[in-house]
Design brief:
Length: 119
């Protein structure tokens, strides 16, 4: 599952710094077995004001989600790609007082792919 996190101390705006999380996802038939493992890991890209991209990974287990929540800032807005684990993760994040929005997977995939080109 992919996730976008907008970090903004004021109102949310399109130019706000961005943290991006995305599930490693490969559509190849040869990689179906690997997909099952990859769905257990969230790949994180943080984009901030005038700073280099930071990459990190979190597990989708309770411990991994806990680490993710600790990594997030209280004024972040998290966008989760709709999926089987999205609502469990969203609930955990919401319980910590961080705003969460569940997004259409296609829209989030397009944003995530465009960010990968910014390396």
């Amino acid at each position: 599952m992919g996730v976008l996190v907008y970090h903004n101390s004021g109102l949310l705006r399109p130019s706000a710094p961005l943290k991006t999380l995305g599930e490693r996802n490969e559509k190849s038939r040869n990689q179906i077995r690997r997909n099952r493992l990859w769905k257990k890991t969230l790949e994180v890209i943080r984009i901030g004001d005038n700073s280099l991209h930071q990459r990190q990974q979190f597990s989708t287990t309770e411990i991994g989600i806990s680490k993710l929540i600790n990594w997030l800032n209280p004024n972040d807005v998290v966008g989760l790609e709709a999926g089987s684990q999205s609502f469990r993760i969203a609930k955990s994040i919401l319980n910590k007082g961080i705003q969460v929005i569940v997004l259409n997977p296609g829209d989030l995939a397009t944003i995530y792919q465009s960010l990968k080109k910014l390396r």
